[in-house]
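As noted in the main text, all predictions were made from sequence alone. Below is one such record, for histidine kinase.
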Amino acid sequence: MKDEDSELPADIIGASEVTAGEEAGTRCVLIVDDDVDFASSLAGLLSLEGYHTPIAHDPAAALDMLGRERIAVALVDVRLGLSDGVDLVRALRQRNPDLVCVMVTAYASIETAVEALKAGAYDYLSKPFYTEELLALLDRCFERIRLVEEKSRIAERLRQTQRLEAMGQLASGIAHDFNNILAVLYSNLRWLQERLDSQPELHELVADALDATRSGSELASRLLRFGARRMEETAVVALGRELPPLMRVLVRTLGDKVTVVLEVTEDIHPVEIPTGQLESSLLNLALNARDAMPEGGRLVFAARNLMVTAEDARVASGLLPGAYVLLSVTDTGKGMPLAVRRRALEPLFSTKPSGEGNGLGLAMVDAFVRQAGGRLGIVSTPGEGTTINLYLPRARLTAA
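Prediction:
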């Protein structure tokens, strides 16, 4: 049996998860040409190369197609009967600024090229052309789309980080003041408790109030940890030893409807993580899973060793080559639609009704994993459940 699994799960491959439907959408090329035979021939050629190729023969049909298909690239003929392809490019770009338009022309000239580029075309192709020219141009178009999307994701991640830092600073200030209030309550309640030994009914009420105060203090401590700008103290943790007692706590917390299962492989690597955050992170994930299974279900916690190679790191989202522990939390709940999955890590994003969730759970788990030097991945399909993967780097031998 291998000490480390080298298979990288699909959630972290590439910058984001891609399903078959999404892939079909991003490889969609609209062909706009009034020559029916040429358009049909070109569509057949590109279909053989794996492209989805809707066809339009006039500007009205092209604009209508843009509203019905997830088109990434448009090949537009410069002459469309009595209409002008350059004007259509301008109209298409106004409808969808992210659309990559290529002008196809049999009247190649500098003036035509300049006019097309001014209208928003990315490039132009002169008829007649070789198949290799067209495929190379489409490769450039989709590479441009990929780079633009990656830049957008990085910018969004930066905005999320800035919002999370602002939320953390606010949470820290509130938690600090709240702790001061709780300290007064706690000391007075203890004073009362010591003097009510002869009155059991009152003694029990004070004990309940003390328990609530301690719970409030723990909540404030979690908010303070959330607001910390730098990583706190770390500890080397053996998951094989730490997870079983935590599972017993989760069984009591989640109730009889949820079956909790723990699967940890032998010789699991130790991990170095921020002190005290593993329990709260897994509790967050467990409570989210319970909410996704209102009728009950199965919740599996699994941990195994994982080796990320240099080639894996080249295509993975933020992982460096090296040894990791993959800690997965899988439920049999409702699953997430694509739109929800894409926003799941945003601070304050929540699908729960107002007053039933603050949207900080997954954002806090993501912050914890990133502090540890790892990454969080999500695999989810509506109706088939969700898996949250925590990629935690193996602890350095010196630390262990």
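Confidence is low (pLDDT under 50) at residues 13-25. Residues 58 and 270 are 63 Å apart (CA to CA). These features were considered when defining construct boundaries for the mutagenesis experiments described in Section 2.9.
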